[in-house]
Amino acid sequence: MDPSASGIQEPFDLIRLSLSERVFVKLRGDRELTGILHAYDGHMNLILSDVEETIMIVDTEGAPDGQGTVNVAKRRMEMLFVRGDGVILVSPPSRT
Amino acid sequence: MASQILPLELIDRCIGSRIWVIMKGDREFTGTLLGFDDFVNMVLEDVTEYETTPEGKKETKLAQTLLNGNNICMLIPGSAGPDDN
Amino acid sequence: MDDTPPPPSEQSPPPPPPATHTGSPTDFLKGVVGKRVIVRLTSGVDYRGILSCLDGYMNIALEQTEEHVNGVVTNRYGDAFIRGNNVLYISAAEVL
């Protein structure tokens, strides 16, 4: 059974096929990461290297109608463990 | 001895009828119940989602929908939902 | 002891054939794989795409995914893995 002809039978296959590739990870708390995926497990704990983290900071102070300004902070880490329960979404590099 | 009925037996009797689902947060659903499982994940049809946001109330119409049981708080059988008084 | 089962009555209807569609979550998911779906997270963010596959935790693999925040497309992913604990619902976006 392969409805999409993409060789994916279960969601984790998507992650398995992204090992050693650069992935995009969306985390709780308005955090985003891109990095090279080295390892994962069933909790979606991840090991990433060459990571760039992007944090969205919405500043609502003194802004009308709650239309706060969004500040983006970025930082780099060489090697990172991500605890699985914070993961919302993982997107592998495009396979096309 | 009073006849015992399990809570989920009551929900089983609602299959095919309208049901009102109230979530733990500020979110409610109504729809026709097609089925559910032991986690009370529910399949609903002709669904309306009701959201209470700071901007006001929001309604969304949905077709057949699998609702995650994780955030369900209460079920009201046979009700058309918040607008049904 | 004295209760013998009644002989098969000619009036009793034959058992109904097993329902092909019982409406259970499992049946819904079987029917919706390969179709366009809307996945809403508890945060209110929507992901619209083609459902590649999913597992018992409601972990989801989506193709041709669009991320919608307040009705605005905020991201596109060729593939996306969504961790099941974030999922509020999966709704069919085309006829089943």
UniProtKB/TrEMBL annotation, chain A:
Q: What are the Sm domain coordinates in residue numbering?
A: 10-96
PROSITE patterns, per database record:
SM
* One GO BP annotation of this record: mRNA splicing, via spliceosome
Where found?
Answer: Nucleus
GO cellular component terms? spliceosomal complex; U4/U6 x U5 tri-snRNP complex; U6 snRNP
What the entry lists under Pfam families is as follows:
LSM
Gene Ontology terms, MF aspect: RNA binding
Q: Which residues form the signal peptide?
A: none
Keyword Coiled coil among record annotations: no
Q: Which domain of life is it from?
A: Eukaryota
Per the record's keyword annotation, is RNA-binding included, yes or no?
yes
Q: Which UniProt keywords apply?
A: mRNA processing, mRNA splicing, Nucleus, Ribonucleoprotein, RNA-binding, Spliceosome
What is the recorded function of this protein according to its Swiss-Prot or TrEMBL entry?
Binds specifically to the 3'-terminal U-tract of U6 snRNA.
Belongs to which family?
Answer: Belongs to the snRNP Sm proteins family.
Name of the protein described by the UniProt record: LSM complex subunit LSM3
TrEMBL record, chain B:
Q: Which GO terms describe its molecular function?
A: RNA binding
Enumerate the spans annotated as Sm domain.
Answer: 6-81
Which keywords has UniProt assigned to this entry?
A: Acetylation, mRNA processing, mRNA splicing, Nucleus, Ribonucleoprotein, RNA-binding, Spliceosome
Q: What is its main location?
A: nucleus
UniProt cross-references to InterPro entries, sorted A to Z:
LSm5, LSM_dom_sf, Sm, Sm_dom_euk/arc
GO-annotated biological processes: mRNA splicing, via spliceosome
Q: Name one Pfam family in it.
A: LSM
Q: One GO CC annotation, please?
A: U6 snRNP
Name the family.
Answer: Belongs to the snRNP Sm proteins family.
* Described purpose of this protein according to its UniProt entry: Plays a role in U6 snRNP assembly and function. Binds to the 3' end of U6 snRNA.
Q: How does it assemble?
A: LSm subunits form a heteromer with a doughnut shape.
Full protein name: LSM complex subunit LSM5
Q: Which organism is it from?
A: Crucibulum laeve
What lineage does the source organism belong to? Answer: Eukaryota, Fungi, Dikarya, Basidiomycota, Agaricomycotina
TrEMBL record, chain C:
Q: Which UniProt keywords apply?
A: Cytoplasm, mRNA processing, mRNA splicing, Nucleus, Ribonucleoprotein, RNA-binding, rRNA processing, Spliceosome, tRNA processing
Protein name stated in the entry: U6 snRNA-associated Sm-like protein LSm6
Chain ranges of the Sm domain: 24-96
UniProt-annotated location(s): Cytoplasm; Nucleus
| A biological process term (GO) from this entry | tRNA processing
| The UniProt record lists the keyword Cytoplasm | yes
Q: Segment Disordered: which positions?
A: 1-28
GO annotation, cellular component aspect = nucleolus; P-body; sno(s)RNA-containing ribonucleoprotein complex; spliceosomal complex; U4/U6 x U5 tri-snRNP complex; U6 snRNP
Gene3D superfamilies per the UniProt record, alphabetical:
2.30.30.100
Q: Report the family membership.
A: Belongs to the snRNP Sm proteins family. SmF/LSm6 subfamily.
Compositionally biased residues, Pro residues: 1-19
